[in-house]
Specification:
Organism: Streptomyces formicae
CATH topology: Arc Repressor Mutant, subunit A
GO molecular function: DNA-binding transcription factor activity; sequence-specific DNA binding
Number of domains: 1
Mean pLDDT: 84
Region (Disordered): 119-140
Radius of gyration: 22 Å
Structural class: mainly alpha
CATH architecture: Orthogonal Bundle
Domain HTH araC/xylS-type: 23-121
Helix content: 55-70%
CATH class: Mainly Alpha
Protein name: Transcriptional regulator, AraC family
């Protein structure tokens, strides 16, 4: 006959094992966020089906795996954009963004401004101002 505490201990051990597995998935996403990653491959590496991995990851970290990965990519992109030596397209490629258009949309949703505006503000780039004649002039 099983003691009730054994069942609780076994459930707690399983919970800790699941958390360790999720931590390994998250750590891999952190390390390899610049590479193309898909949830199915992450799930296979964690020895879990993709749907349960997604549910468990969301419960543990508050975001679905794809959203977490995009958040990490945007964080890395802000660092690269602050440097100012790469174009937005180059930054998108460097952080593993799926496409420049998708990257720009995701970046703007998370940061509140487009990557172009973020880069201009971070680097202090002067943005040309058009006068009424349509001619560009630079602020002095």
């Amino acid at each position: 006959m099983c003691q009730p505490s054994w069942g609780r201990a076994r459930a707690e051990a399983q919970r800790l094992s699941d958390l360790a597995r999720l931590r390994r998935v998250r750590d891999r996403m952190d390390r390899e966020c610049g590479r193309p990653l898909d949830i199915e491959a992450l799930a296979r590496a964690a020895n879990l089906p993709a749907a349960p991995l997604g549910r468990q990851f969301r419960l543990a970290y508050g975001l679905a795996p794809h959203a977490y990965l995009m958040t990490r990519r945007v964080e890395r992109a802000t660092e690269l954009l602050r440097r100012g030596d790469l174009s937005v397209t180059e930054v998108c490629s460097a952080v593993g963004g799926p496409s420049p258009a998708t990257f720009r949309t995701c970046f703007a949703e998370q940061v509140g401004v487009s990557p172009d505006v973020y880069r201009q503000r971070a680097t202090g780039e002067a943005r040309p101002i058009s006068d009424r004649s349509g001619m560009e002039k630079h602020p002095s």
